[in-house]
Amino acid sequence: MSQEHQQTIETVADLIHGANSVVVFTGAGISTESGIPDFRSAGGLWERYDPEEFTYQKFMSSENSRKLMWQLAKEFAPVLENAEPNPAHQAVVRLEEMNKLVCIITQNVDYLHQKAGNSESKVVELHGTMRYIRCLSCGQRYTAQEIQAVLEDGVEIPECHHCAGILKHEAIAFGEAMPAQAMLKAEHASKNCDVFIVIGSSLVVYPAASMPVVAKRSGASLIIVNREPTDLDSFADYIIRGSAGEAMDAILKSVEQRMDRA
Ligand code: NAD
Q1: What's the total number of domains in the chain?
Q2: Which positions are annotated as active-site residues?
Q3: In the predicted model, what is the mean pLDDT of residues 128-142?
Q4: Is the CB of residue 128 below 6 angstroms from any atom belonging to ligand 1?
Q5: Which of 80, 90, 212, 250 has the lowest CB atom count within 10 Å?
Q6: Parent domain of 121
């Protein structure tokens, strides 16, 4: 670890130690160390699939699109089911244990923050979740495991057992409206925190990526932890380049040392 990197970690630890309200904002990059590929890194999902195929409009209007979507879901269900939280997720749990965490605004659909031990009420899922599937006609809800069993029986496009309606994951598709309550909660937390930490997001997907801007304009210190440059680096107060797991664990250790000394 370079001296400059270590110094940034110490400065960020000071900021968190002195803060009362910390908001954590996460993207797919926090979960790559848990074995879930992100979208835009080398080897990410968009090297294998065309994002244009997965818009809400196509899903609703084309049976072929729904078939493709369910193929992808069937392939990834075991990856999501078996993924375990990594040290970056655990670091966010440690922040909650210190009573500093206001909430986690996540773009992820993988449920790893809750699996790590963060309270359900602290997690704002801006892009929904892959854990549940809903009938778009009658609202009946299914777990991903229930529908995975149907897919594994050879059904290519599962439908609602009650009304034969179209089934869709509760994850937000491209072009679909954002969940209103989650957006309100995220905006409120972003406007009212002392420290806002982005972990593992390229910050190119809007409106989610507007949250760090809202926080910074409202007076929060903005920290970005990411392996590569992001679209908002010029806006950040501190940038930590590297593995989310290593960086977050190092930051939390430093904060814990300060709390032990106090
Ligand atoms: P993204 O793929 O656009 O960006 C991920 C960023 O994380 C990249 O800049 C990459 O350099 C960085 N990164 C990857 N691994 C890292 C690591 N170990 N440590 C530090 N940085 C790392 O993802 P995004 O910004 O979240 O936006 C894309 C969309 O992807 C979101 O809408 C989200 O819903 C969806 N998505 C979610 C998951 C998931 O739930 N785990 C997985 C893939 C995509």
Answers
A1: 2
A2: 127
A3: 97
A4: no
A5: 90
A6: 1-34+85-127+179-262
* pLDDT at position 144: 96
DSSP per position, the chain: --HHHHHHHHHHHHHHHH-S-EEEEE-GGGSGGGT---SSSTTSGGGTS-GGGGBHHHHHH-HHHHHHHHHHHHHHHHHHHH----HHHHHHHHHHHTT-EEEEEE---S-HHHHHT--GGGEEETT--SSEEEETTT--EEEHHHHHHHHHTT-SS-B-TTT-PBEEESSPPBTSPPPHHHHHHHHHHHHT-SEEEEES--S-STTTTHHHHHHHHTT-EEEEEESS--TTGGG-SEEEES-HHHHHHHHHHHHHHHHHH-
Q: Which pLDDT tens digit goes with each residue over 18-55?
A: 999 999 999 999 999 999 988 766 666 667 777 777 89
CA of 107 from ligand 1 middle (Å) equals 8
One domain, residues 51 and 137: yes
In angstroms, what is the span from residue 199 Cα to ligand 1's centroid? 9
Least confident of 22-26, 70-74, 90-94, 241-245: 70-74
With a 6 Å cutoff on the Cβ, whether 118 touches ligand 1 is: no
Q: Is the distance from the beta carbon of residue 85 to the nearest atom of ligand 1 less than 6 Å?
A: no
144 shares a domain with 44: yes
Is the domain of 66 the same as that of 164?
Answer: yes
Does the predicted model carry a pTM greater than 0.70? Answer: yes
Residue 174 lies in a domain: no
